[in-house]
Specification:
CATH topology of the largest domain: Rossmann fold
Low-confidence stretches: 1-23
Number of domains: 2
Largest sheet: 5 strands, parallel
CATH architecture of the largest domain: 3-Layer(aba) Sandwich
Number of helices: 16
CATH superfamily of the largest domain: Response regulator
Strand order of the largest sheet: 2-1-3-4-5
Shape: globular
Length: 406
């Protein structure tokens, strides 16, 4: 039956009103602040943007009339640059959420600005455990990992296996210092010893040979790499060249799949590292990886990049629960809702957000595979052990977070 002209006009008018209503819905703006060009560009960078957009797609934001936009910028591993971008985003550009922020010195600078503007801070890339310790904020969720969980898993495993003496090679800024501090706590608790340390300027150091020779001559059983990204890759490559990997165990305290891939299994085989995510961990992680890979090209997301997915997905659940106007008006209230809602996603599985802003999930110990054990380019690591979520992170009462009432 042919539609009448009146019905057609009415239908068109209704469609137009709905379209205008959607267009007038205030957009949520997520600003992903990352290292796009420096030491951590492979560990973080644009792959995190693609993972955040995958979360929006999987959540079905468009079908729920939630208009979400992800923008991004390069903080160049400089706190002043990161702070300036964050202020512009929050004061002028209508950004509601700051996401990712690797490089702990930048992460701490951003934390203060977001808290003062009462927006939302979802940190995936910054590692310092101070974010949920003395510098904790009611506007922050520290999602993916921290230096306390990384050292507890990796150093703790080595201590239990009889590796009780350590030489610390430290990137001399907040993240490296935090890894060293948290490692020292685990070593002391297990009755181990620190035989020596060297701190090097970050991020300008590329040659580590003299530092590695000092470690080799220390008599320590373990070289603890308190660094990440390109620094870890360079240290391991140069350690292999000097034969150090035949005489010492290496604890790579932040050695993600992308860095393992960049180092090569022939060089990195046997090294232990920890994290909350690896693409081949279970059926859910494999399903996530399959969905996002068409967007990320040759890169298979690591835990920091995948952490952007988990954090954004849970944020959107909170927004849906409280409504867009309320979410845009009060970042602290959004984080409170995020804490009340249990977390569950294909990257980290089930978990929760603790009172201090720490996201709790299982942490896994991995060993880098031998080339003969690998079946393809990204088949890099095998699972050694898992620490359950409630045991994997620093206890709530030990962090010194001022949000926690004694």
């Amino acid at each position: 039956m042919a539609l009448s002209r009146r019905l057609l006009l009415a239908s068109a008018a209704a469609t137009g009103l709905a379209a205008r209503a959607r267009a007038q819905t205030p957009a949520l703006r997520i600003g992903l602040l990352s290292d796009l060009s420096g030491t951590y560009r492979d560990d973080t960078g644009m792959t995190g943007v693609y993972c955040a957009r995958q979360a929006i797609e999987d959540f079905g934001a468009a079908n729920r009339d939630i208009n979400v936009e992800v923008i991004f910028a390069d903080h160049q591993n400089k706190p002043d640059v990161g702070a300036a971008i964050t202020r512009r985003w929050l004061d002028q550009d209508g950004v509601d959420v700051v996401l990712d922020v690797p490089t702990s010195s930048v992460a701490l600078a951003v934390n203060t600005i977001v808290r003062d503007r009462n927006k939302v801070y979802l940190n995936s890339g910054g590692g310092t455990s101070d974010l949920t310790g003395p510098q904790c904020s009611p506007n922050l969720v520290h999602w993916t990992y921290d230096t306390a969980s990384q050292t507890k898993s990796t150093i703790g495993s080595l201590m239990r296996s009889g590796f009780d003496s350590y030489y610390m090679l430290v990137a001399d800024y907040v993240f490296g210092q935090s890894l060293e501090k948290d490692s020292a706590r685990v070593i002391a608790a297990g009755g181990g010893r620190i035989m020596g340390r060297t701190a090097y300027p970050f991020p300008q150091t590329e040659e580590f040979s003299s530092l590695l020779l000092s470690a080799q001559s220390s008599g320590a059983k373990v070289l603890a790499l308190c660094n990440a990204g390109g620094d870890t890759v360079n240290c391991i490559k140069q350690a292999r060249e000097f034969g150090l990997l035949e005489t010492m165990k290496v604890a790579a305290l932040q050695f993600q799949a992308t860095a393992v891939h960049g180092t090569g299994l022939d060089v990195a085989q046997g090294i232990l590292t920890s994290g909350g995510y690896y693409w081949d961990l279970n059926d859910r992680t494999r399903a996530f990886n399959a969905r996002v890979r068409p967007k990320t090209g040759k890169i298979w997301p690591n835990m920091t990049q995948a952490g952007c997915y988990g954090a954004v997905l849970h944020y959107l659940k909170a927004v849906a629960a409280m409504g867009i106007p309320a979410a845009k008006a009060d970042g602290r209230a959004v984080v409170e809702v995020m804490k009340r809602l249990p977390t569950d996603d294909d990257v980290f599985g089930a978990g929760r957000i603790r009172e201090d802003g720490r996201h709790l999930h299982d942490v896994h110990l991995f060993q880098v595979k031998k080339p003969s054990e690998s079946t393809h380019e990204w088949d890099l690591m095998k699972l050694v052990a898992t620490t359950p979520a409630e045991q994997a992170f620093r206890p709530l009462n030990e962090g010194g977070c001022p949000l926690i009432k004694a």
